[in-house]
């Protein structure tokens, strides 16, 4: 470790996104409702967070006067939305575009069948509304869904999903934001983290990760290797951004995620007496600080310690606060490249430093 410092960190590249599954075309639907008929009368209720007022949720109630036609899903009534001016459509668009709006009403949008089915496998009851393209049939995996299913026109689906074509986007879901997501900026007391962590052994800290594909992939890897949670420092992108959700493959809905400042992180580290280490390319190491090389021996020496691992942003690397607070560790590389994509490097760190009792690092897959 005595290499000269630079500002480079593990560099970015987008992760490929899985092609969403297509739904099976159903028989022709009944005649669509008029633009004035937004919702059936029995759906006259606001979209609001359980236990919170509709003003906090910031969602508009949409009603309609037309009688819905029968649906083939478990005796439910078939409800249709044909106008892009419908209040629910406007709500969905804001959920897709605005992180602040998502956090204010504690709702998020899932675009595409693949992420919806991933959520249904472990949290079906968290879905409020399912929007299906008119003329398609809900898949077998959603037969147990007891919430509202709305059939929408192609124009509405394009507006809600932000896609130019509906060929591969025939489903959208509105769901509750997970209870284990905490935005410490909205809390004024010191008890915001109570009950979220129970003596955590491993926390992944992301320092200004701005690419949603990289952030989602890192959350997915942290969940795969049984880390206890993810802490997002300022300048990170929103974990419920559409691209981040796709890359996380449902992990962001299962793993505790905290958004806060360095002050909040220091409080967490102090409370649980955690050691802080930061991943840093060998070629960018600070010559004034000792830098460790990632190895089985290093990982074994940390098995009985609680650890926070910090990964820096793709463009600017680790922040000054991170460099000052953390011990540095690099991934030794024999090749000609000086650094790795942050999600690739993060996967290596997360695997090697995973909690005691997980996969044997010396075994051959």
Automatic annotation (TrEMBL):
Gene Ontology MF term list: RNA binding; RNA methyltransferase activity
Thylakoid among keywords: no
GO biological process annotation, one example: methylation
Keyword rRNA-binding assigned: no
InterPro entries found in the cross-reference section: Alpha/beta_knot_MTases, Ribosomal_eL30-like_sf, rRNA_Methyltransferase, SpoU_MeTrfase, tRNA_m1G_MTases_N
Alphabetized UniProt keyword annotations: Methyltransferase, Transferase
Annotated ranges, domain tRNA/rRNA methyltransferase SpoU type: 203-351
Pfam families xref list: SpoU_methylase
Protein name (database record): tRNA/rRNA methyltransferase (SpoU) family protein
